[in-house]
Amino acid sequence: MLTTRDGPSVNITEAPQFCEYAAGPCDQSFKDTRTSDGLFLYPNEPKVIADPIEEAIQQLRRLSGERSWISWKDLGISGQIIFCQICKALRFTKLVVADVTTLNFNLLFEIGYALGLGLPTIPIRDASFIKDQRAFDELGLLDTLGYVDFENSAMLTEKLLSLSTSLALLQQRPSTNKEQPLYLMKSHVQTEGMVKLMSALKKSGLRFRSFDPRETPRLSLHDGMKQVLSSLGVLVHLVSPLRSDSTVHNGRCAFVAGMAMAAGKNVLMLQETETRQPIDFRDVVRAYGSAAKVPDLIIPLIRTVFETLQESRFVPITLPLRPLEKVDLGDLAAENEIRGLGSYFVPTAQYNEAKRGRARLVVGRKGSGKTAIFYAVRKSYWQSRSHLVLDLKPEGHQFTKLREAVLAELSPGTQQHVLTAFWNYLLLMELAHKIVREELNYSYRTPELRSSYLKVAETYGSDSETEQGDFSERLLRLVEDIATRRLSMSSIAGTSEVSQLVYSQDIRPLNEALGEYLKASKKEDAWLLFDNLDKGWPIGPARFEDLLILRSLLEATRKLQRQFEARGVEFHAVVFVRNDIYQHLLFDPGDRGKETAVLLDWNDPELFREMIRRRLILSTELDGTFEDLWRIFFVPHIGGEESFSYILDRTLMRPREVLQLVRDCIDVAVNRSHEKVAEGDILQAELSYSEHQLVDLMFDLRDVRPQFADAPYAFIGSRSVLSRAEVEKRIAEAGIHQESVEQVLELLLWFGFLGIQSFPEGERYSYQYEHDLRKMQSGLDRYSYSIHPAFQKALGCT
User: What's the predicted TM-score (pTM) here?
Assistant: First the structure.
């Protein structure tokens, strides 16, 4: 029996009211379905894994008295829909034992389904069979359940018999998120289909939350369950199996889709290209060969979610919650909690600099709060008619196409000329687009304002196909137009050729029309907020052309600033970029000192305490100091160390990481039915978090130096403090050539995986010194290297 907050309890042994297979009420008969105490799910191949599992089932039947143990092979599925029989068996069992030695899509779907039903689930694996170990590390999801490792049938039998027969899974369902009722699993590559998908969702008016593997490589089980169970619809975007890293991504999608279907959600599994699907969900996948078909494929899901929102059964029913269950720290991704940020956003000095227009660059690593500042600055000015705010967040691969199709054969000087003209044109068109789309009604206030508005609309022009898209689609259309014109031009040397290449129309009338409108509407200032510029960049180190795209954007904004201020309108541009990209700008003498930047390095623990305090107050309606609130929900000490300091020291001092580890601690405690987060809950959460951080670091390294992505794994089993010689030896043993060892060491120091340790100064990490390695090493003649505590548990350091 599952408890929900949006309606009555659900008996899973009764036919569900909605099934994605039947596209309505379940059409299967549950009469005479075999009940069991434990159901084994495992692949038929390889036999070296399947055989000991089947032998263990026989041993359990002999040794466990009247308890009934069955496998999927006992279900008699011949001549019937296979998954329907597995679905019924899951609904009539007390425990699911699932083998995850290999990454099998059918099994991931079935495990997700079992958890979506609220069933206790035990993942088992042959610890000596390590073929897919790295893939499972990247996948996440299952590690918080805890694995049962075995090497033979006797070991597996013994461990299963020793487990409690009353394993519990948190079954309290979260209330439906009616503000953002759709949950989207984005793909890890921004394909043409993904761009069309995002554009179609934005145009639908349906607010949604999303999981973006480029931002958070691993999805935790608790977060996945919370997001799925609080949704009305779930959309997963499966990529072609020919794409790199497709196995992990598609496996994660299968897991989430299984969980959502079990919970009775409306699910769309969207598949890029026609490909043979796993048998469990083959009949419910919707494939597309052309990206143009994506909007049509998602229409039924959008309509169904809108219709479901209107049903009266989603009037919240309040059930009593324990104090710890009330704690909600919000979403890790700022994109998913734009409204909530207004209640618990902590205004830092860096935010104030950006809001006052004093910073043109906001620089920080992933998870440091760039997007939160983006939305906070936008909110400060967006609702006032005296400000014009243009917020741009491209989603796709448009810049890669621009580089390959347009810039490849041009000289560096011509490239910069073309790109600056490109940005100037694009930004003017986007400003005009915003005015035409959003200020129509406002333009009727005075004849002068109406006249200037119509002039902007006339000079902007109209393209129905492009107009219906979002910024990413308009950007892609412009890039495609430029690429087409490039094919017809033999050479590009002077200003006239650049104008012919970039501009589809004379921009001087548009420029003048914008100036007149801004003056007539009495705008105090205009704001450009630009995020995600580096999201579409290819894996690998930043190329000259990539950095030139950023430089030319900054140059174009300076040009617009001069043009606007000549008409009495202040213009502020703020671009949000990663630390490593900013470092490249610093290395170029031509860029050094040109742009004012604020660096998001959170070195003050009090900021994190305030961040947690505000979120605790909002979700629990309690009030008080951080110390008072923390002691209500957490044990005060771990060993002899204050518990929040213990947690903070095991992060790289970024808001997303602190929120993640604190939330993981709460999830473990709630799952164990604890009234307060205990020391053991924190230690268990630390292990899962550490594994997440290790995978996250691997992806960060892959983004900048793919050949060094596996370097951290060379430190498995090492001491936590090492000499220079020991570090070099570990790196060399990872297969990295001697001439690259110094480069790898610098990367590991820069990313905070390694720090330096000396006596009596203690440990130093790059984020404490604004990622300036020279500053970090200053004043020290001799030192050792330390592995950051965030990674030690996952590596098994001593």
Answer: 0.74
